[in-house]
Amino acid sequence: MSNLNAEVARVTERIVAKSRESRQRYLDLMAREGDKHGSRDFLSCSNLAHGFAAALEDKDSIATGRGPNLGIVTAYNDMLSAHQPYGRYPEQMKLYAREVGATAQVAGGVPAMCDGVTQGFDGMELSLFSRDTIAMSTAVAMSHAMFDGMALLGICDKIVPGLMIGALRFGHLPAVFIPSGPMPSGISNKEKQKTRQLYAEGKVGRAELLASESASYHSPGTCTFYGTANSNQMMMELMGLHMPGAAFVPPNTPLRQALTRAAVHRLAAIGRNGSDPRPMAQVVDEKAIVNACVGLLATGGSTNHAIHLPAMARAAGIQLDWEDLDQLSAAVPLIAHVYPNGAADVNHFHAAGGISYVIGELLETGLAHADVLTIAAGGMADYAREPWLESEALAWRDGPKTSGDPAILRKVADPFLADGGMRLVQGNLGRGTFKTSAVDPARWTIEAPVRVFDTQEGVTDAFKAGELDRDVIVVVRFQGPRANGMPELHKLTPPLGVLQDRGHKVALVTDGRMSGASGKVPAAIHITPEALNGGALALLQDGDLVRLSAEEGRLDVLTDLSGREPAQCREASAGMGRELFAVFRHLAGGAEQGGSAMLEMAGL
């Protein structure tokens, strides 16, 4: 592409160069897998009979191989609002498959936990490693070798990355991600945030808080703030793994149903024996990974993807690190203002032009690779179009060239910020991520004494006792993958926000994660090496002076730490099943490498 941005081109070339050997190993493996498992003919009659014994309407088709058999891997449960609509998908998808001479079976289910439910409680310590579990569950589902394509039903935080990692190990097959869409807008995010802060100050009670939260999270569909779940959906579009424009169409609507039908038809057409083979291993390449990074930065997406993107890339033999994200961030402007970066939610974003507008802008200005293979016949250009129903038939039309609301979407030439908002900060305390897009630039540099905690409960107790009512950098350590599974610390946002609103200089420094909805308080997160693994955070004591600067890309302690012994991490707790994940904690890699035990053990 002749107009490709020079910095995007340079970062892509860097990724290609450092990935050359690992990427080739992956492609060689996929070629061997395709040769060995490219058809069901290698299965014995007994194996095959087991595989279609219950497929009463499709036995003959599967037995004779008349058409492709599609494996559905579903993250359905009806506790997650985003995944509740998936309950009816498999039966519908089987009908859609038969329309084009194909068949479909549910290959397996994967766990799907909700960070919104576990946030701040013991179950959250399983969250990051649920991604590894999902990846392995996907591999178990596909290991039957009964399938010619993968239909992946998942939306939320660790679920899409886990499905992606697992599916990529079967990259000789085509794959399509099929979303279900966001719930209707509830109360404004600003109103919800205000009630949370009032509750943190003790000015409203639990009843008022629950009423507020219930007015925000209120029906089937994905939560409407632009956190990790909705960032996942944006990235699947930028990687060409959705039907174009599928990300933010509401659930239980005719257009949503038409997109699901089209996804099944398309998956049946792009298999090995079809007229237009598009194996997942070829779709997810270095350019697709860069496009996902660019989309994340241009829209101010979730910081969790500073961990998930390197992990997903590794599964495809691609080496991505925080230097790459930082350099792309410097080149990619922020062109979307969606909560927590602005007041709008994803429904407002979609109405203002949404993902088709963003992709059109990125392609037009050379910030995204156009010359990539996608599941759509027209490549990435198809993702600058938007779906609609014309006389009840699904069609696509050109996406808008102008924003429907300049407070939500802007041109690359007139961005909200010149920087994509995900900065690398590094220094004598380690390396971490700072999401600048949600933080007032006046707060990008904070220098203050630290108050050190080993648990997030310690922070909230100190806040309630009035011990933090001053300029302070709150350090929460022993929150990394090896210490306790790297839980999100999103419940710290309201009390820290209160302190900031009182006029104090406040920041958070942690080897843990924040939510995809990390907000207005400056934070250096994902610090690596983590405190348990030789990180300098273990040497800090109350009162040490720390300087955090997103402008300079620095994270430094200004106090001399020489001669200190590292603090000891408390033993990881049992209960809520956490003891079953001890092997994951023991073997987990660093945050910059994706925080995965499974990928470390596999040598990927």
From TrEMBL:
<keyword id="KW-0408">Iron</keyword>
<dbReference type="InterPro" id="IPR000581">
    <property type="entry name" value="ILV_EDD_N"/>
</dbReference>
<keyword id="KW-0411">Iron-sulfur</keyword>
<dbReference type="InterPro" id="IPR004786">
    <property type="entry name" value="6-phosphgluc_deHydtase"/>
</dbReference>
<keyword id="KW-0456">Lyase</keyword>
<keyword id="KW-0479">Metal-binding</keyword>
<comment type="function">
    <text>Catalyzes the dehydration of 6-phospho-D-gluconate to 2-dehydro-3-deoxy-6-phospho-D-gluconate.</text>
</comment>
<feature type="binding site">
    <location>
        <position position="156"/>
    </location>
    <ligand>
        <name>[4Fe-4S] cluster</name>
    </ligand>
</feature>
<feature type="domain" description="Dihydroxy-acid/6-phosphogluconate dehydratase N-terminal">
    <location>
        <begin position="68"/>
        <end position="381"/>
    </location>
</feature>
<keyword id="KW-0004">4Fe-4S</keyword>
<comment type="pathway">
    <text>Carbohydrate metabolism; Entner-Doudoroff pathway.</text>
</comment>
<comment type="similarity">
    <text>Belongs to the IlvD/Edd family.</text>
</comment>
<dbReference type="InterPro" id="IPR020558">
    <property type="entry name" value="DiOHA_6PGluconate_deHydtase_CS"/>
</dbReference>
<protein>
    <recommendedName>
        <fullName>Phosphogluconate dehydratase</fullName>
        <ecNumber>4.2.1.12</ecNumber>
    </recommendedName>
</protein>
<dbReference type="GO" id="GO:0004456">
    <property type="term" value="F:phosphogluconate dehydratase activity"/>
</dbReference>
<dbReference type="InterPro" id="IPR037237">
    <property type="entry name" value="IlvD/EDD_N"/>
</dbReference>
<feature type="binding site">
    <location>
        <position position="223"/>
    </location>
    <ligand>
        <name>[4Fe-4S] cluster</name>
    </ligand>
</feature>
<dbReference type="Pfam" id="PF00920">
    <property type="entry name" value="ILVD_EDD_N"/>
</dbReference>
<dbReference type="Pfam" id="PF24877">
    <property type="entry name" value="ILV_EDD_C"/>
</dbReference>
<keyword id="KW-0311">Gluconate utilization</keyword>
<dbReference type="InterPro" id="IPR056740">
    <property type="entry name" value="ILV_EDD_C"/>
</dbReference>
<keyword id="KW-0119">Carbohydrate metabolism</keyword>
<feature type="domain" description="Dihydroxy-acid/6-phosphogluconate dehydratase C-terminal">
    <location>
        <begin position="408"/>
        <end position="594"/>
    </location>
</feature>
<dbReference type="InterPro" id="IPR042096">
    <property type="entry name" value="Dihydro-acid_dehy_C"/>
</dbReference>
